[in-house]
UniProtKB/TrEMBL annotation:
Signal peptide range: none
Name of this protein: Diphthine--ammonia ligase
A Pfam family of this chain: Diphthami_syn_2
Catalytic activity: diphthine-[translation elongation factor 2] + NH4(+) + ATP = diphthamide-[translation elongation factor 2] + AMP + diphosphate + H(+)
Gene Ontology BP annotations: protein histidyl modification to diphthamide
E.C. designation(s): 6.3.1.14
Taxon lineage: Eukaryota, Viridiplantae, Streptophyta, Embryophyta, Tracheophyta
GO-annotated molecular function: diphthine-ammonia ligase activity
Diphthamide synthase domain sequence ranges: 1-226
Transmembrane intervals: none
């Protein structure tokens, strides 16, 4: 990509440019924001470093690329962590600056910044990039600061301190010193006082005088003045005010220019400095496309739209799909609009909006239309509608048309409150894959971390790792762990559930390798953390493998972890006396047997969470059906008709009820209930739904342990295969999530 780099003069923005080049991008312009008054060194700004701005103007000649500058007119008006376009805010100066750069150099598609740990700055750069249709590149994001500082020094960043404001840093002693000479002292201060060795906490600021990007000249500071802003005895604050400097040409750049035959006119244009004017207040106007959710749906489509919803009021899942028994559809665009509009109207009926949604499962019939699906998606779920953060998301191709559905199938997890914590990093970095658009990496709510589906993407390039399904899986798990660490946990000890989506492009002979790789990764990661002394309260996750036609980017594997983050729970103690551990009555004629336990995986945190995976393999299905009165025990064709599926459905409900009751949970605690069924059953979803509905109605009438409303409480998910192992040969697989508050 062609990149405009935000430069403050500091070491971080310069090294970020070097990382951009390392990953194959091209720096074609620089952008800098400076005070309106040249005599002012530093502004009271949460966003911009301005100390040393008098020297930054020479970066154009040093690098041989144009520099665009704008004098800051705005101030800090929007002080919340997340940012919304605000008139008169200093962020709008950056927006105007980058908009002009893009106008003059239309080929630019990305913006580089040196953010390492500041969410405040990253959010604002991403906000502006999103508005201008640019990609944010933040290759220093979340990197270990000790290693990062060493990298900068090793890779030729020559930078001096131009501001100090921390315990142990003395303006008289340390201003104007090169970072290479302060490196060991900064590590000492880190151990003594906990300062950030890269200065991310504002402990110090730097000015880069030379680096490998300065191919034409280096900067020599001839004279400077130390200005003391605060004489505090513990942490004095001082800045360096440059008085005189000059450029020292590099011999190699001159010969390079001569051999390339570059003329003076071209050089003048390449290293030009352009000051961008414009009124911040006038240019700041809210943009965005709104969708009228209340508009009437087409009567024909409305008749085909169906909804399911769990009974829990404060945290529930809701699903919408198009019943299309003719196996034809008007197209993804119309189907998806109808489904999203229906969900939006249902949310409004409950007094909710998209801001109440924690997670979205987006199922489409053809991954070739993924871009079109996103185009429709972003018109409904926007950052403006979700001020606390957009929902996390996974996108999967399912065989929808084969079972009589439309081309889009959407499931949402909804909460009544606004206590969620969302991690949404849109910048491309070395940390974890970016989420460019209105979907986030993870959402934490009531101690449960709902993580977006992770692919085996190499974060800095956003390309799939080569090497097959096990390599992709390992990278997806590494990416998942990077996200988990932002919530002070790890997939190796906090995961309660892994859903592993496997593409049919994985040969059957290699699927067992996926299972082995997951087991090995978890063991190795736990051992590593145990050796570091930071492993405690290890949870034993349950596993669900799902075979699907395709995944985004033609990935072979997608991992969707769900984690329990105990530290974020307000209360983790439970009152045992209030929990009703009961033996569920057997309302059907199932005889209790030891093999029932082989169907079940469960992860239970007493009084809080109960997650169940119930797997009915072909072999167990035959056993269940053979125990039915009047069953033909000589049936050897292994085919299951309506009568057999009806029997299997009742067995699933019976066993789920038994596990729930035995662990102190009720059907009213369920937040999500899915039944996966293979298309190999050759049964339309409409038929299967009727079987499940009748079984649940019968169970509700007999047991009085569950209330049934007009919508079913379960979702039926058509897949090519599913199961608790990578063989994925179940007739029916259930995923149940229940949670108490």
């Amino acid at each position: 990509m062609k990149v405009v780099a935000l430069v403050s003069g500091g070491k971080d923005s310069c090294y970020a440019m070097m990382k951009c080049i390392q990953y194959g991008h091209e720096i074609v312009a620089l952008a800098n924001l400076l005070p309106a008054d040249d005599t002012v060194d530093e502004l009271d700004s949460y966003m911009y470093q301005t100390v040393g701005h008098q020297i930054v103007v020479s970066y154009a000649k040093c690098m041989g690329v144009p520099l665009f500058r704008r004098r800051i007119q705005g101030s800090t008006r929007h002080q919340n962590l997340s940012y919304r376009m605000t008139q008169g805010d200093e962020v709008e100066d950056m927006s105007i600056l980058l908009e002009e750069v893009k106008r003059q150099i239309p080929s630019i598609t990305a913006v580089s910044s040196g953010a390492i740990a500041s969410d405040y700055q990253r959010f604002r750069v991403e906000n502006v990039c999103s508005r201008l249709g640019l990609v944010s590149l933040a290759y220093l994001w979340k990197q270990d600061q000790s290693l990062l500082l060493q990298e900068m020094v090793t890779n030729g960043i020559v930078a001096i301190t131009v501001k100090v404001a921390a315990m142990g840093l003395d303006p008289a002693k340390h201003l104007g010193k090169e970072i290479i000479n302060l490196q060991s002292y900064l590590h000492k201060l880190n151990k003594l006082y906990g300062i950030n060795v890269c200065g991310e906490g504002g402990e110090y600021e730097t000015l880069t005088l030379d680096c490998p990007l300065f191919r034409n000249a280096r900067i020599v500071l001839d004279k400077f003045q130390v200005v003391l802003h605060s004489s505090d005895s513990i942490a004095p604050v001082g800045i360096l005010h440059p008085l005189a400097f000059h450029l020292e040409n590099k011999v190699e750049s001159i010969s390079l220019s001569a051999t390339n035959g570059t003329n003076d006119a071209c050089l003048e244009k390449i290293d030009s400095v352009c000051e961008v004017q414009g009124d911040c207040l006038r240019r700041c106007a809210a943009k965005g496309e709104s969708v009228d959710a209340a508009s009437d749906l087409d009567d024909v489509i409305e008749h085909r739209l169906l909804i399911s919803k769990t009974r829990k009021d404060n945290l529930f899942s809701m699903c919408c799909w198009l019943q299309d028994s003719s196996k034809t559809s008007s197209g993804l665009q119309e189907d998806m609009k109808a489904v999203l509009k229906k969900i939006e109207s249902q949310l409004m009926e409950y007094g909710f909006g998209w801001e109440n949604v924690l997670y979205i499962h987006l199922y489409i019939s053809d991954m070739n239309e993924f871009a079109l699906a996103n185009e429709i998606y972003v018109k409904y779920i926007t950052q403006e509608k979700c001020p606390l953060g957009v929902p996390s998301r996974s996108t999967i191709e399912l065989p929808l048309l084969q079972v009589g559905l439309g081309r889009a199938y959407v499931e949402v997890l909804v909460t009544y409150d606004q206590s969620k914590r969302v991690l949404h990093v849109q910048s491309i970095s070395c940390w974890a894959p970016s989420c460019i658009g209105p979907y986030s990496q993870a959402t934490l709510h009531k101690g449960i971390l709902h993580m977006a589906g992770q692919l085996g993407l190499d974060p800095p390039t956003m390309n799939l790792c080569s090497g097959g399904p096990t390599v992709e899986l390992e990278q997806a798990l590494i990416n998942s762990d990077a996200v988990a660490k932002c919530f002070n946990c790890s997939v190796s000890n906090a995961a309660i559930l892994f859903v592993i989506y496997c593409s049919t492009r994985i040969p059957p002979s290699e699927r067992i390798g996926v299972q082995d790789k997951l087991d090995t990764f978890l063991k190795q990661t736990r051992l590593f953390q145990e050796n570091k002394g930071c492993l405690s309260n290890v949870l034993d996750p349950i596993l669900l493998y799902v075979l699907v036609p395709d995944l985004p980017k033609r990935a072979l594997v997608e991992v969707k972890p769900v984690l329990y983050v105990e530290d974020d729970m307000k209360t983790t103690e439970t009152t045992v006396e209030d929990m009703s551990f009961t033996i569920a009555p057997n309302h059907w004629d199932f005889q209790e047997a030891s093999w029932h336990d082989t169907c079940i995986q469960k992860s239970v945190i007493p009084g809080t969470i109960c997650v169940i995976i119930l797997s009915v393999t072909n072999e167990l299905a035959m056993k269940i059906c053979s125990e039915s009165p009047g069953c033909n025990r000589n049936n050897q064709d292994h085919r299951f008709g309506n009568e057999q599926i009806d029997r299997i459905t009742r067995f699933c409900i019976y066993l789920l009820d038994k596990v729930l009751a035995g662990n102190g949970f009720s059907w009213e605690d369920i937040t999500n209930l899915k039944f996966y069924f293979p298309t190999g059953l050759c049964m339309p979803l409409e038929t299967l739904s009727l079987i499940f509905t009748n079984a649940f109605n019968e169970f509700a009438e007999m047991s009085q342990r569950i209330k049934i409303g007009k919508e079913p409480i379960f979702n039926l998910i058509p897949v090519l295969g599913a199961g608790k192992t990578s063989s994925m040969d179940d007739i029916i697989t259930c995923e149940l999530f229940s949670q108490k508050h």
